[in-house]
Amino acid sequence: MADNQKMWGDLGMNLEMHDQLCAVLPGAIGDVFMSQENRPEHMDYFDMVLADVHGLRPAELVEFREKGGKVFGTFCAFVPDEVIIAAGGIATGLCAGSQFWVPGGERYLPANTCPLIKAMLGARFDRTCPFYRLADIYIGETTCDGKKKAYEILGTDIPMHIMDLPQMKRPKDLKKWAEEVKDLMGIAEELTGNKVTPEKLAEKIKVINAKRAALQRLYDLRKNEKAPISGADTLLVSQIAYYDDPERFTKMVNILCDELDQRVADGVDVAPGAKRILISGTPMAIPNWKMHNIIETSGAVVVCEETCTGTRYFENQVDESGETIDEMIQNIADRYMGINCACFTPNEGRFDDVIRLAKEYKVDGVIDVNLKFCQTYDIEGYTLEQRLNEAGIRVLGIETDYTDTDASQIKTRVEAFVETLA
Ligand code: BJ8
């Protein structure tokens, strides 16, 4: 802890304010995670990472930078880590899931902005997150309007590169996205001083594919009738995926899955009799565990998330058959354009995904969770609900933010919904 204080001080953090943030984390961890019964033993790695979230990984990043390494901060599932790590950089997600950062963001943004975007700016400008301090450059993307404009403000304080994500998925858009991926590679090469070779890129495509495969394995285990792991625990794993070392993370997820294989064989069920819920909607950045906690204390268990802290992050692999840099870049671009974010029009693929996942995970109902003021997901919720109704799948729409003020009202609605599930 003393070492952490020194590190945080050296990073120019606001220590007094950061202490306030650290003070609330143990209580939240206790309430959400430690209160669960019958957790898998190998959640211990993820618990440890969480308990020292601003210490362990930041210390690794500090060491990496002291040796001349460059850290790339990212905000979206569309930024291809493969390209960054092929240039010898480290890609780290910049989470923005805490209410603690929202007031800081409101100094720069209208109050009626999505809390995730407000938290991004608060975390940076309040100087209370080591990851935001450690990144040498931020990689943004043109997804929703709020993020796009907020990046302009962030860019006044740190170098920023924006990837221009097309908002349709026609062949010419795929071609354009490949150009954006190639530009990112150029930025990464320039910043790190390392040339990306075909061999390096092929190797790193495999590294990130292995990470996706491990997460798919974890999710596949949740398809079992008896849930071997809770939704909250799985969400934590998915959140840590954004900033842990990819190879170590893959190893630890596979170790967890080995245990879950045994649990399935032994018929272990962490939520006997609970209704099975699929969550769809906006991402849940660490430490946003609000909806999982509410749902899993209301007679249900979350067995799948169709979110960017869920299936959108890991489904579909990058084709590994590319030999030249251009072929590999196109394969990377194609895989990422398979992500069905609500910033696209049309976005039919997402409706198909939710219905497919509802069937694959044998869910009793879908809860569509959207962050307040996220227009794209909110508007898309209308059609999603229609499609689910047509498919005979029950759905509940929830709009919320990071505060606890609506928690008891949401709990009442979730409990009523769960009760009506067959
Ligand atoms: S690929 S979901 S991570 S943009 S910030 S859109 S909640 S108003 S996060 Fe996202 Fe990439 Fe899409 Fe996934 Fe809405 Fe808020 Fe915008 Fe958000």
3D architecture notes:
The chain is of the alpha/beta class and 422 residues long. It has helices spanning 2-10, 15-34, 44-51, 56-66, 81-86, 102-106, 115-125, 130-134, 145-154, 171-192, 198-221, 231-241, 246-266, 290-296, 311-314, 325-336, 348-360, 375-390, 407-420; strands at residues 71-74, 90-93, 137-141, 160-163, 275-281, 300-306, 365-371, 395-400. The strands form two sheets. The chain has a four-stranded parallel β-sheet with strand order 2-1-3-4, sandwiched between helices. A four-stranded parallel β-sheet has the order 6-5-7-8, with helices on both faces. Strand 7, helix 18 (375-390) and strand 8 form a beta-alpha-beta unit. The site of Double cubane cluster has 20 residues, from helix 7, helix 9 and helix 18. Residues 76-78, 114, 116-117, 143-144, 146-147, 282-283, 308, 339, 341, 343, 371, 374, 376-377 line the site of Double cubane cluster.
Tell me briefly what this model is.
It is built from 19 helices and 8 strands. It is of the alpha/beta class and 422 residues long. The site of Double cubane cluster has 20 residues, from helix 7, helix 9 and helix 18.
Write out the distinct hetero groups bound to the structure.
Double cubane cluster
Oligomer: single chain
Widest sheet: strand order? 2-1-3-4
Task: Detail the poorly predicted runs.
Answer: none
**Biggest sheet architecture:** 4 strands, parallel
- H/E series: HHHHEHEHHHEHEHHHHEHEHHHEHEH
What gross morphology would you assign?
globular
- How far do the termini sit from each other? 50 Å
Class of secondary structure makeup = alpha/beta
Per DSSP, what share of the residues sits in E-state strands of 2 or more residues? Answer: 5-15%
Helix content: 40-55%
User: What is the CA-atom radius of gyration, in angstroms?
Assistant: 21 Å
The counted number of beta strands is 8
Number of separate helices: 19
Please state the average pLDDT score. Answer: 97
